[in-house]
């Protein structure tokens, strides 16, 4: 038999080579792995309660941490069989080509779950006492110490999980000394 030429049906790059020149090739033997930069896909295991809210063709946002960017992804398929151990469905979404985006990179598929009100305050109001967090609140013009539970930190805000209500007036620790005098 003579030499054979293998051609991809799309413009592709070779990412892995499993056979060398002179090796005997047999039917079904893997020779190469190809990468098509125009046809990237995300496979995400999504818990069943969220997967049931998704639809084929729906567009979601995908965050690629290594590139510090968010790009759109379109749901191509929701595998109709759940993983009973993980209680999740496999969701396959296609993404557009993006510079420096390559197969194997970690991506987070952002699935909307509804709206939730959050109480955010500047971190300058939060005082740490040992392992506890607290703020000073004005209660009838009297400063009162209030212990709080802090959540996720954002750029210039911190989420308050408990211990504070919307509308309460806060005093910065710097202004606290002036208020007490």
Provide a concise account of the structure shown.
With 181 residues, the protein is mainly β. The protein contains 2 helices and 13 strands. The longest helix is centred in the last third of the chain and has 8 residues, at 173-180.
Q: What is the domain total for the residues?
A: 3
Structural class: mainly beta
Q: Radius of gyration in whole Å, from Cα?
A: 27 Å
| Oligomeric state, counting identical vs distinct chains | single chain
CATH topology of the largest domain: Elongation Factor Tu (Ef-tu), domain 3
- How is the biggest beta sheet arranged? 6 strands, antiparallel
| Averaged pLDDT | 89
* CATH first level of the largest domain: Mainly Beta
Description of the structure:
It is a single chain. With about 180 residues, the chain is mainly beta. It folds into 3 domains: about 10-40, no CATH class; about 40-110, Efflux pump adaptor protein, beta barrel domain (Elongation Factor Tu (Ef-tu), domain 3), CATH 2.40.30.170; about 120-180, Beta Barrel (conserved putative lor/sdh protein from methanococcus maripaludis s2 fold), CATH 2.40.420. About 5% of the residues lie in helices and about 45% in strands. Strands 8, 9, 10, 11, 12 and 13 form a 6-stranded antiparallel beta sheet that branches. A hairpin with a 2-residue loop joins strand 10 (about 130-140) and strand 11 (about 140-155). The longest helix has 8 residues, at about 175-180. It is elongated and about 90 Å long.
